[in-house]
Design goal:
Length: 342
Amino acid sequence: MNAGTSSPARARGPRPLLSGAKRILSLPIVALAGVVFLVAPASQSSAQEEEGSISDELSEAVTAYLDAQDELDALKQEQADLEQELEDSEAESAALKVELEEYAAIASTTSDFQSTAALLASGDPQNAIAAMEMLQFLGESRADRLNELIARLQEIEATRQTLADNIEEQENTTEEMEAARDRAARELAASGGDDAVGPTASDAPPAEPFEGESNGCTEEDPTADGCLTPRTLHALEQAQIVGFRRFVACYRPSSFGEHGKGRACDFSSEPDGFRGDAQGEDYEYGQNLAAWFVENADVLDVQYVIWYRQIWLPSSGWKSYSGAHGDPNSDHTNHVHLSIRS
């Protein structure tokens, strides 16, 4: 994987470049402060402003689809947990039933008169009486536990049916959200949203998952004057940790898209800024980076990726992209655009 040249980051000291994306790194959180973020020179900032972007409609459609998919996954996990609880409860119920049957067999063969005779013959009636009381208590406690389990099994059966109905409804909602997302994507994709053969295999190590809360644009953007969401900053850091160290620009004021919300970054295919169409080594760098974002989409909460006149959307894969104006910036032929979920 190609590594770009670096320049000192604002408010951050420069560190040595990584040897390449194939080198698997495991850095503690404190080491993230040493990651070098390449800051856009003033002469390059205007180039980024010319970049085309997807519509708010598509962005909202993708977000709605991903949220619906998350809800469906949560419901399916709840269903799996419930099935496990049902299995455990049924096993415990069966064991208790065996104990109760054994207790009933003992009680049925020992009448009160026989018990009294046995107590009198034992020479220690108090101990015998205590034993009988304990036997009765154990039988009652098992019966109570069995009744609790029977009631719980009935609740589980009822919940199971409700959950199945909810999952079916959520599956329908997810399909509707997916259809809305695809309709919006086709408006921006060439030839009615034709499937495209985009990059799918990267030689970089996997990303670490984001941990914590990501509520709003709360983190300082190390690549520009602005802010990023914690999840977006994490994705940026992870990309640079594994070796994608070329020029990056993230936040910029915008009335649409994710850049103005601190949820998007543009990763140049060249070491020091946005220029013409990527060729040769620069093109391979962009291919590798775009593939890495796709491979780590779930871990990084990727909303979509745009690279070289193609757009990648969750579950639908790469599509041809026409939301451009025939120049390298809006065609995304000189940088990989990454948008992250809120």
